[in-house]
Amino acid sequence: MHWRGDVLGFVARLVVGGVWVVAGLLKLPDPAQNVRAVRAYQILPEAVVPLLGHALPIIEIVVGGCLLLGVLTRVAGIVSMVLLSAFIIGISSAWARGLSIDCGCFGGGAGPAANAQAAYPWDIARDAGLLLLSAWLVWRPHTLWSVDAKLMPLEA
Amino acid sequence: MMASKRSTSTRRADSQAASARAAAIRKEQERKERRRRNLVVTGVSLVVLVLIVVIATVVQSSRDTTGATASAPSGAVGRYAVPAGPPSAPVKVTVYEDFICPFCGQFEAASRTALQKDIEQGKVQFQYHVLNFLDRSSSTHYSTRAANALAVVLDKSGPAVAKQFHDLLFENQPQENSAGLSNDQLVALAVQAGAKKADVQKGIDDLEFQQWVKNVTDQASRAGVNSTPTVRINGKTVDAVTTADLVTKVEQAIAAG
């Protein structure tokens, strides 16, 4: 048993899982707002924008919940990495094109256009950090105090 | 060459080796059993989680009524805008704003007097798209209530009174992250602008045009408007960093005709 890996994994689960659950819960109350936030990035075709706008907070809460509890940790880690990569690409694209949008990540909407650009590097840095923690969990999914350990024990 | 009779220690070693092998085989079987069981548990868990996501997404989607049919207030221009000024005016200025947005308040305060003259002289028609996307900036969905109130006033009392009411709403703009003006205060301002209380009270209290306001906000998003105030002159967005800059450019465009 790699106990150091287990503890670090436990902390990673709490941090990444906590962030996802909070982000999802903040978005839940206003579904129309989230559709607008997705549309503002001008990356996806309009046909999928409403679907993604509605599904995203749900996916975030479910992934976050799985990580917090340690359920299907590796799968949740992979989904987390996919989402974060998509966000990093989206924000970078908006930044490169000079779009002014408040990052829709934490349920935010619009504000003064000037501030949006300044926030991009910080948003990307934050998502990159979470991406690294998620990658750790994909690599070492056996962590301290997880439901996985009860459901799918390694030893009899 | 082995002796046919084996010594005790050899027999013991052989039997130990045999049970060790048997134990290893058992352990291997148990491992395979466990792996199969874990796969089943994983599979079932995944199916359950996916089902949860699908059902919850459907529920979330049903909470979003954007795009549902809603009649516009009579007097609205282009289905989504509150007009100020004659339709024959050579310059059309579209303004996307939210009644609790402080930058919109600044823009209105800086431009109101000069632009009122231009409107009266028929040089320009303003088309206000009043949005509710800052609803979460108040505890009472003030953006929706104020935009709805404007629609009610336009519908019941006409564009001239509506323009007055619009200006009064910005002159009395509440702070962001406050409760905003109450419905009774909105009615009082409407009366001050020239509306009859009996005409507008019910529409303001009942959020008569709430769905229309949601659709106006959706249309703005589809038109690429993501911050307020956004001003477009004859369809082209005015690029400006400061409020003063914005006002100057609008006035120049109107003067140019």
Please characterize this protein's 3D structure:
- The complex is a heterodimer of chains A (156) and B (257).
- Chain A is mainly alpha-helical and 156 residues long.
- Chain A has one domain (3-141).
- Chain A has helices at 3-27, 31-40, 49-69, 73-96, 113-139, 147-151.
- Chain A is elongated.
- Chain B is of the alpha+beta class and 257 residues long.
- Chain B has two domains: 14-63; 82-256, Glutaredoxin (3-Layer(aba) Sandwich), CATH 3.40.30.
- Chain B has helices at 8-62, 102-120, 142-157, 159-171, 183-193, 197-206, 210-222, 243-256, and strands spanning 82-84, 91-98, 124-131, 230-233, 236-237.
- A five-stranded mixed beta sheet of chain B has the order 1-3-2-4-5, sandwiched between helices.
- The longest helix of chain B is centred in the N-terminal third of the chain and has 55 residues, at 8-62.
- Classes of the chains: A mainly alpha (156), B alpha+beta (257).
- The A-B interface holds A 28-33, 35-36, 39-40, 42, 46, 50-51, 54-55, 57-59, 62, 66, 71-72, 75, 99-101, 107, 109-114, 116, 151-153, 156 and B 30, 34, 37-38, 41-42, 45-46, 49, 52-53, 56-57, 60-61, 63-64, 66, 103, 133-136, 214, 217-218, 221-222, 224, 226-228, 241.
Helix content of chain B: 55-70%
| Rg over C-alpha atoms of chain B, rounded to the nearest angstrom | 35 Å
In the CATH scheme, what's the topology name of the largest domain in chain B? Glutaredoxin
Total count of domains of chain A: 1
Instruction: Please write the CATH class name of the largest domain in chain B.
Output: Alpha Beta
What is the multimeric organization of the chains shown?
Answer: heterodimer
Major sheet attributes of chain A: none
Taking pLDDT < 50 over at least 5 consecutive residues as the criterion, the unreliable ranges of chain A are: 103-114
Strand arrangement, major sheet of chain B: 1-3-2-4-5
Global mean pLDDT of chain B: 92
CATH architecture descriptor name of the largest domain in chain B: 3-Layer(aba) Sandwich
Please provide the ordered H/E string of secondary-structure elements of chain B.
Answer: HEEHEHHHHHEEH
Class from helix and strand fractions of chain B? alpha+beta
Q: Which sequence of SSEs, written as H and E, runs from N to C of chain A?
A: HHHHHH
Biggest β-sheet strands, sense, barrel of chain B: 5 strands, mixed
Give the proportion of residues in helices of chain A.
Answer: over 70%
